[in-house]
Amino acid sequence: MYKLSVAANEVKLSPLEFLQRHISAASRSYLRQLLKRGKILAGDGVLTESTVLSAGMEIQLPHSGRIREFLEGCKGECCTDPVVILYESREILIVDKPAGVAIHAGVGHEQYNLTTQVEAMLAQRGSHFSCSPVHRLDVGTSGPVLFGKGKKGCSELGKIFMQHEVEKNYLALVQGRLPGSGMLCSPVEAKGKKREATTAFKALQRSDEMSLIELTLYSGRQHQIRRQLSDIGHPLFGDRRYGGQLPPTLERMFLHCCRLAFVDPFSGVMVEIESPLPGSLKSFLPKDW
Predict the structure, then answer these.
(1) How far apart are CA 24 and CA 102, in angstroms?
(2) Helix 15-22 crosses helix 28-36 at what angle (to 10 degrees)?
(3) What is the CATH number of domain 2-72?
(4) For residue 69, what pLDDT band results from cuts at 50, 70 and 90?
(5) Measured between alpha carbons, how far is 137 from 240 in angstroms, rounded to an integer?
(6) How is domain 167-256 classified at the CATH fold level?
(7) What is the pTM of this model?
(8) Which DSSP symbol is given to 236?
(9) Which residue in the list 44, 81, 138, 239 is annotated as catalytic?
(10) Element spanning 18, H or E
């Protein structure tokens, strides 16, 4: 069977919405039929349209030729780099995600994704607990990803994300000259509805052609940073989906999560994780920056 894992920011989705997010090539009616026929499992039971999702819940898809076509229609990325651990405790694991690696299995990422890499690493260590991511980064974004160990780890860490108790900072290079600092407050479409999104930014370096900025997220909408910057006429370099230029010397979208900070819900200790700007992005910046 093919397996998916529910992230903390997906617990409010309906099962059908969750499946549409992960199997975007399949039609809504086809996925609904799978649910009605009891072909999809959730934990120890059957996933239905009324099932309430929970963080870390394992969803098992039927091993059919059609599902395989949907999930493996694109050749998966072969990423064999070792997992870089930034922080680990009994309940928490934080790893550094490279750009180009999906967090979960999905179309084009069935075999090679961050979750399977972490699972393989834990298996090599002889660990016998489940470990699931509690938030997401876009495939093209790099930076730290927080995993919860076991159901309790996923549940408690999921709560602090849902309650916006995790500080998230990003580094981005945008086209044009931005002001020294500011707030981006605008509705962003999420789950078919417009929802308010708030992002603060501070310019670190600027020229007429580009601005290197640090961003702080106060909400967690899908593609929030990318959409808001594009909407004000300053798209990310490399973000062609939202109107950004991809110069020949830039290999990827210029967006990196550089910091996660939160109070460990188990120990009460403040955890602050920093991830330096990857060399592939640093080399694109002007030398005097």
Answers:
(1) 15
(2) 130
(3) 3.10.290.10
(4) low
(5) 17
(6) Pseudouridine synthase (3.30.2350)
(7) 0.71
(8) B
(9) 138
(10) helix 15-22
